[in-house]
Amino acid sequence: MNFCSGAAMVLCLHYLVISTMQLLAIAVVVFGVWMSTHHDGCRKSLTLPVLAIGAVIFLVSIIGFLGALKRSSILLWIYLILLCFILVGILVFTVLAFIVTNNGSGHSVADLRFKEYQLQDYSSWFLKELNNTHNWKHLKGCLVKSDDCSNLSKKYKTLKKFKLAKLTPIEAGCCRPPSECGYPAVNASYYDLSFHPVSSNKDCKLYKNARDTKCYNCDSCKAGVAQYMKTEWRVVAIFNVALFVVLSLIYFVGCCARRNAARDRSKT
Asked: Rounded to 10 degrees, what is the CA torsion of 199, 131, 174, 101?
């Protein structure tokens, strides 16, 4: 059975491109906008790429629409080539994203409801990016200006509430010293550093109560950022899997439309 036979397939592509693909492009852009509104300037590493993918898909859909409408083999060839590049790009990024985010997980700490993270648990790519002096200087400046640490004392007004809190990876890694240091917490944003640390972890000496210092120079802070990035990349990768499946179906229909356009031209 020839699934690509009949002029109806051309019309099918016409409606599929104008509806499904353009709606899909809008969905990708909305997803990118959602990411940008839910994160501050420090954590928008994937926002622009997602928005760019949505814009490119929309432009390619216009080419496909015109190719189907005019039954132009040239436009349909351009449409299919560009769509193929998009599919390959999405596939490569998704595979790499799953590989990069395969390692790293939090460690449970007694009497705490949140986990602590260790930098060495994460992939070599994350280690390279976060240990890069230029990259970390930018991220550190962003984190200092953000409200992650400064808001802790407002969110948890008593020490009891703070100990029952479920801190985010960045709050757990950047706003407080690692638990193994043994510093007693006075409140959510202040620790008694007069105690000698019970651990040889270098982060214990790097932590300061000053607002612009905290544990921003600690490996635990980099690990918290790595965990955040891992979660963000996983969400985008899962979204890309769904995107790849839908675009593959649209690509198949596009191939059928191109064949029909070529057949119609040969008859005339």
From this structure: -100
The pTM of the full predicted model, rounded to 2 decimals, is 0.80
The residues facing 107 across adjacent strands are 116
Token pair, residue 180, equals 């193994």
Please tell me which residue, 20 or 118, carries the higher pLDDT value. Answer: 118
pLDDT for position 1:
47
More confident residue, 37 or 217: 217
**Per-residue pLDDT at 3 exceeds 50:** no
